[in-house]
Amino acid sequence: MNQKKLLVIGNWKLNPATKTEAIALADQIDKNSKHTAVLAPPLIFLTTIDYPLLAAQDCFSNIKGAYTGQTSAAALASLQVKYCIIGHSERRSLGETDEMINQKASMALSAGLIPVICIGHGTTVTEDDLAVTEVLARQLDINLNGLDPNRVVVAYEPVWAIGSGKSASPEHAEMISLFIQTKYQVPIVLYGGSVNSANASSYVQQPHINGFLVGGASLLPNDFNYIINI
Ligand code: PGA
């Protein structure tokens, strides 16, 4: 039986719609889970929900100034937010570049947040392990430039697996995690992409997968509670 402690982040994305629903959802998530569980609600609900560990879904690349609509890492840190997801493929597809992600991660670190850098955008289901590592290396070479790898978390999320119900094989996710840990010296690598209560245990058995970034299943309290206590 594998006893390692996982980091499991529930990425609620743009869900739920209202404050009342957000409070109710967080109230159903186990606060004393076996693994380290973190909730990443929409920004506006970060101070509304009651949960011990929180992540933002993004931050801006500057600390303050004339940037209408943006949120700084320093502001997030002042709200007791501990982690910040950066470079999610849903943001990359809106035009976020590897350089912007590097800048945001650097700002997050300066503010005392732990950046959770997401990679995998641009990968396809048909690529072999080597081709995938080439895409990821292009992203990580820039995303991690100048950062202390010991202070960041990397989440490998093959873009075709996100929200599709098709997850990467545990062996593939393990190979990629090992690659990231070995080449970039990042100690904590998460897998994300259609993780649910039925498939999570198959990844846990892999020695170099340290947890999950969970989207859809994090909105289902029974499923998420199962994963954070697996
Ligand atoms: P999913 O999303 O679990 O719904 O595939 C994961 C993510 O986008 O972080």
List the helices and strands and how they pair.
Blueprint: E1 7-11, H1 19-27, E2 36-40, E3 55-56, H2 73-78, E4 83-86, H3 89-92, H4 98-110, E5 114-119, H5 129-143, E6 153-156, H6 170-184, E7 188-192, H7 200-204, E8 211-214, H8 221-228
Parallel strand pairs: 1-2, 1-8, 3-4, 4-5, 5-6, 6-7, 7-8
Helix pairs in contact: 4-5, 5-6
Bound molecules: 2-phosphoglycolic acid.
2-phosphoglycolic acid binds next to strand 8.
General description of the model:
By secondary structure, the protein is of the alpha/beta class. The protein is 33% helix and 15% strand. It contains eight helices and eight strands. It has helices spanning 19-27, 73-78, 89-92, 98-110, 129-143, 170-184, 200-204, 221-228, and strands spanning 7-11, 36-40, 55-56, 83-86, 114-119, 153-156, 188-192, 211-214. It has an eight-stranded parallel sheet with strand order 2-1-8-7-6-5-4-3. Strand 7 (188-192), helix 7 and strand 8 (211-214) form a beta-alpha-beta unit. It is globular, with a radius of gyration of 16 Å. The protein starts with 6 loop residues before the first strand and ends with a helix. 43% of the residues are buried. The mean pLDDT is 96.
Quickly list its features.
eight-stranded parallel beta sheet, binds 2-phosphoglycolic acid, 8 strands, alpha/beta, globular, 230 residues
Give the helix/strand class.
Answer: alpha/beta
* H/E element order: EHEEHEHHEHEHEHEH
Radius of gyration: 16 Å
What ligands can be seen in this structure?
2-phosphoglycolic acid
> Helix coverage percent of residues?
25-40%
Distance between the termini: 11 Å
Please report which band the strand proportion falls in: under 5%, 5-15%, 15-25%, 25-35%, 35-45% or over 45%. 15-25%
| Total helical elements | 8
Shape: globular
